[in-house]
């Protein structure tokens, strides 16, 4: 949830969030999708 909130609050891209949190893009997508309740399909 922290990642999604960071992206929304700071109007950043996934790439910018990756740099900020020091994680991979796939981790960001997985976390945001999981928190959103979306299956990604």
First and last CA, distance: 20 Å
Succession of helices and strands: HHH
Low-confidence stretches: none
Choose one word for the global shape. globular
Number of domains: 1
Q: How many β strands by DSSP?
A: 0
Binned strand content: under 5%
* Cα-based radius of gyration, to the nearest Å: 10 Å
Largest sheet: none
Counting DSSP H or I runs of 4 or more residues, the number of helices is 3
Which SSEs are present, and which pair or pack?
Layout: H1 2-10, H2 14-21, H3 25-36
Structural notes for this entry:
By secondary structure, the protein is mainly α. It has one domain (2-36). The chain is built from 3 helices and no strands. It is globular. The model has no long low-confidence stretch (mean pLDDT 86).
List descriptors:
single chain, 41 residues, mainly alpha
Quick structural summary:
This protein has 41 residues and is an all-alpha fold. It contains 3 helices and no strands. The longest helix is centred in the last third of the chain and has 12 residues, at 25-36.
């Amino acid at each position: 949830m922290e990642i999604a909130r960071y992206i929304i609050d700071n109007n950043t891209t996934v790439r910018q969030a990756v740099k900020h949190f020091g994680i991979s893009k796939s981790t960001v997508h997985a976390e945001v999708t999981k928190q959103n309740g979306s299956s990604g399909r």
